[in-house]
From TrEMBL:
The keyword Chaperone is annotated on this UniProt entry: no
GO molecular-function term, one example from the UniProt record: metalloaminopeptidase activity
Protein name: X-Pro aminopeptidase
Taxonomic source organism: Aurantiacibacter marinus
Coiled-coil annotated residue ranges, if any: none
Classification via SUPFAM superfamilies: Creatinase/aminopeptidase (SSF55920), Creatinase/prolidase N-terminal domain (SSF53092)
Upper lineage: Bacteria, Pseudomonadati, Pseudomonadota, Alphaproteobacteria, Sphingomonadales
Chain ranges of the Creatinase N-terminal domain: 9-141
Domain of life according to the entry: Bacteria
Record domain Peptidase M24: where: 312-531
Family: Belongs to the peptidase M24B family.
Length: 601
């Protein structure tokens, strides 16, 4: 029987928990690979609660339930999740373990799915509940799956080869490098479960997760360079099998847990941040000597080789032309009052689809008009869709997946016909100044992203305002639009990636912003490549950024008087490059629009 209401679904889950003699259950947004974006079958939190954000968790107890989200989703969670069913909790101020300990009865048994959480999370939660006289219990089979009668099946879409011309190195080379690392560390094998790491190591891609070209699978790499790839056999084509060769043993995904027996007595590496609790539990059961190590594909994957760098440049060039056509269209149509968030996003997608090289979008387009633009991770729906009003701010964050690169760009534009208010121009120009400061910065080897973050915020801070997200995230090569380990963000609290030094070949976003709740949002985002810099008289090794994203920035929103001569020179140089790259791809009215948009400031 299909349960149409979230109240009915919550009731059914509670009945299932009672049947299993559990007093509560934790529901994260996660899959067996700890992916940021998950397949439809793993959207358990959305099914249960209605919450459509990309990060958050629920806790369901016998008589209480709560939603835990961070500041990005404070408004969204209240719009999508029934406050009569769930309390709203804000992370990190509200701690999930503390709430369970204070709310659950003494002796409560709180369940969790060991395939959806890290070992670190489970240990910390167990310790907190134990102090309160409660118990954390690993469940055998997710109880939501037992009551979700129309749960989507796991994707059976075939995996496909990522050609070496795009990858820049063969899978054999990459596996050989991992094997050398294993031998150097005295290890026999490594378990790799992060989907993008599996895809990168094998030079394969898939379509099992929306907008992220990965295939649901696991990988065990041995110290002799051979590997066991665990994947549904229906997903492996003859081309994929032939490309991988005999050194990669293709095994049924159902054999993954049983295959751990072959690791008994061996020294096995696993990444505590990217592998679920169940993997460590299984390694312990078979008697493996578990060594905690970062996934060996993570850093090499982040440092793009020459083929990947050029691929990104090529992808950015064609993507920039598509976005420019959209902005020209929007300049004409927006002030008419006939465009809304959904139709704008659809039109942008259509412009990208005019190029046959597009494989997919890289994420659901953030199309935010007016007050919705102030929600920095907003996702438009039929229920939330707003029109683009004349004389308002519109923010659009979007990207494309191409076999040679992954793009991610945000542009904020003024929908005319009148001129923008002074406050909007002030805030936009402060965001622009921070964007330019970061783009222009030269820094020495060993510099972490946290050391650069304030460059993007400085002019906003001087006005007593800030933004609540990081300034930059890593980006994959026809892989995840969010990729570690590097990022540019405040270093407080040891946020993941903020201590990772930046090295040549890494790609990051540069995306400062400003958000006035209930009114408008501003963000300017380009992707940048870390490159070597030569400076007269320099001592040691120095780096800077090459800007990859090439799309005009809305000059209507700029207060020129607030810019220094160096910032104006940056603007003019940037737009000269935009024109040089995009003009050969445009014609007619689109070319005329580009000419005007790229005039010196």
């Amino acid at each position: 029987m299909l349960m149409q209401t979230h109240e009915a679904r919550l009731s059914a889950l509670r009945e299932e928990l009672a049947r299993r003699e559990l007093d509560g259950f934790v529901v994260p947004i996660s899959d067996e690979h700890l992916s940021e974006y998950v397949g439809a079958y793993a959207q358990r939190l959305a099914w249960l609660t209605g919450f459509g954000g990309s990060a958050g968790s629920a806790v369901v107890l016998k008589n209480n339930a709560a939603m835990f989200v961070d500041g990005r989703y404070t408004i969204q969670v209240r719009d999508q999740v029934d406050g009569k069913l769930y309390d709203y909790k804000s992370v990190p101020k509200d701690n999930m373990g503390d709430w369970i300990a204070e709310t659950a009865a003494k002796g409560a048994r709180i369940g969790f799915d060991p395939w959806l959480h890290t070992r670190g999370w489970a240990k910390a939660m167990a310790k907190r509940l134990d102090k309160a006289g409660a118990e954390l219990v690993a469940v055998d089979g997710n109880p939501i799956d037992a009551v979700w009668s129309d749960q989507p099946e796991r994707s059976m879409a075939p995996a496909f080869v990522q050609d070496d011309t795009y990858a820049g190195r063969s899978s054999a080379e990459k596996r050989g490098e991992i094997a050398d690392w294993l031998k150097d560390e005295g290890l026999d094998a490594v378990v790799i479960s992060a989907l993008d790491s599996v895809a990168w190591t094998l030079n394969i891609r898939g379509s099992d997760v929306d907008h992220t070209p990965v295939a649901l699978s696991y990988l065990m790499v041995q110290s002799d360079g051979t590997a066991d790839w665990f994947i549904a056999p229906e997903k492996v084509t003859d081309e994929v099998s032939s490309k991988l060769g005999n050194a990669v043993r293709i095994r049924n995904a159902d054999e993954f847990s049983a295959a751990f027996a072959q690791l008994a007595g061996k020294r096995v590496a696993a990444d505590p941040e990217r592998s679920v609790y169940a993997i460590f539990e299984r390694l312990d059961e078979v008697g493996a000597d578990v060594v905690l190590e970062t996934d060996p594909a993570v850093l090499p994957k982040a440092i793009k080789n020459s083929a990947e760098r050029q691929g990104h440049r090529d992808a950015q060039a064609r993507d920039g032309a598509a976005v420019s056509r959209f902005l020209n269209w929007l300049e004409d149509e927006g002030p008419k009052g006939t465009v809304d968030e959904l139709s704008a996003a659809a039109r942008l997608k259509a412009f990208r689809e005019e190029n046959a090289a597009l494989v997919d979008l890289s994420f659901d387009t953030i199309s935010g008009a007016g007050s919705n633009g102030a929600l920095c991770h907003y996702r438009v729906s039929e229920e939330t869709c707003l029109p683009l009003e004349p004389n308002s701010v519109y923010l659009v964050d979007s990207g494309g997946q191409y076999k040679d690169g992954t793009t991610d760009i945000t542009r904020t534009v003024w929908i005319g016909p009148d001129t923008p208010p002074a406050e909007v121009k002030d805030r936009f120009t402060r965001v622009l100044k921070g964007h330019i400061a970061l783009d222009m910065q030269i820094f020495p080897t060993g510099t972490a992203g946290s050391a650069l973050d304030v460059l993007a915020r400085q002019h906003l801070w001087m006005a007593g305002v800030d933004y609540a997200h990081g300034t930059g995230h890593g980006v994959g090569s026809f892989l995840g639009v969010h990729e570690g380990p590097q990022r540019i963000a405040k270093g407080r609290g040891g946020q993941a990636g903020t201590d990772q030094e930046l090295v040549a070949g890494m790609i990051l976003s540069n995306e400062p912003g400003y958000y006035k709740a209930g009114e408008y949002g501003i963000r300017i985002e380009n992707l940048v490549l870390v490159v070597d810099r030569q400076i007269d008289g320099m001592e040691g090794e120095w780096f800077g950024f090459e800007t990859l994203t090439l799309v005009p920035i809305d000059r209507t929103l700029v207060d020129r008087e607030m810019l220094s001569e160096a910032e104006i020179a940056w603007w003019n140089d940037y737009h000269a490059k935009v024109h040089a790259v995009l003009a050969p791809q445009l014609e007619g009215g689109n070319l005329a629009w580009l000419e005007a948009a790229c005039q010196p400031l």
